Amino acid sequence: MSRIQIVALVVSIILILLIFQLIRRRKLKEQYSLLWFLTVAVILGLALWDAPLFRLSHAIGVAIPSNTLFLLALMFLFGMALHFSLLVSRLTDQTKMLAQKLALLDRDLRAQQSKAAPAKSTGEQSGPESGDDPD
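^ thats the sequence. predicted structure below, dont judge the formating
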């Protein structure tokens, strides 16, 4: 086993432990942890068995397998950026809709309170008269 394979193996193990720790502390959702576990599995697979990387490099016409690895990493990061951009866009739309619904509910609540306020002020006068002494 070469030195780079040992380093990749150690990094993979550290990443697995880090992902488990983030899940345990509720810092990383399970749906994203699966993606990161898959990423670590690919890194681990390429660290232990580099023949697929050489074959892929030869198939796409890249002379150096490490360049293929960088290309795959770049494509992965592009995919993650696109995914999170879509997620942020959707959450922005949902936040806008929630703010609008909250404004409508607040308006309705204020309207109900303003209708109830005059009725309350007239209802307070029907209490015990000032001439009646409870003692």
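The CA atoms of residues 19 and 33 lie 7 Å apart.
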